[in-house]
Design brief:
Elements lengths: L1 E5 L7 H7 L3 H7 L4 E7 L2 E12 L2 E9 L8 H13 L5 E7 L2 H9 L3 E6 L2 H5 L5 E2 L2 E2 L3 E7 L1
Parallel strand pairs: 4-5
Antiparallel strand pairs: 1-2, 2-3, 3-4, 5-9, 6-9, 7-8
The structure holds coenzyme A.
The site of coenzyme A has 20 residues, from helix 1, strand 4, helix 3, strand 5 and helix 4.
Length: about 150
Amino acid sequence: MQIKEITTNKSDFMDILLIGDEDETMINKYLNTSKLFALYDKSKLTSVCAVMTADKDTVEIKNLATYPEYQNKGYGSALIDFVCKKYKNDFKFLVLGTGENIRTLNFYKKRGFKETHRIKNFFTDNYQKPVYENGRQLIDMIYLKKFL
Ligand SMILES: CC(C)(COP(=O)(O)OP(=O)(O)OC[C@H]1O[C@@H](n2cnc3c(N)ncnc32)[C@H](O)[C@@H]1OP(=O)(O)O)[C@@H](O)C(=O)NCCC(=O)NCCS
């Protein structure tokens, strides 16, 4: 397993980024100002993570995605561990916002994140089309935080 930082042509990764965030316009708002990390297993791209500085104490995961055929093999967790180690000396908190999908929320909670607040109607106000996950429309953005 190898994790590389991608510094050029980040939009080449749009297909996998769209798994974590299905609106390309929204992705383009953070892609250039985020650091993009790509995880490869035996030279095959399996997962990506985009991370942005939010303030002097806080880094934010803007996108985390694993191709469906590689999910549940530990790659997403490996990227979270990598990001925690990389930023723990310089920042206090790792935060992220996600839709109200119980599976995703449990994934992060199991890895040390706690819910802090929600942004009401974030998905209905900011996304061009309704977003559905597990058959439910995403409405609010739930924020989670982990101490580094
Ligand atoms: C959530 C996600 C990044 C996890 O990546 P991964 O490489 O499968 O992660 P791991 O193998 O380390 O962990 C598997 C965990 O993810 C959960 N998971 C698997 N597929 C999932 C999916 N489609 N959506 C949400 N969670 C999922 C599993 O339930 C498992 O949880 P557990 O450890 O509590 O049992 C990945 O499933 C994914 O890209 N999902 C779709 C996009 C998404 O929801 N991104 C997060 C938005 S910020």
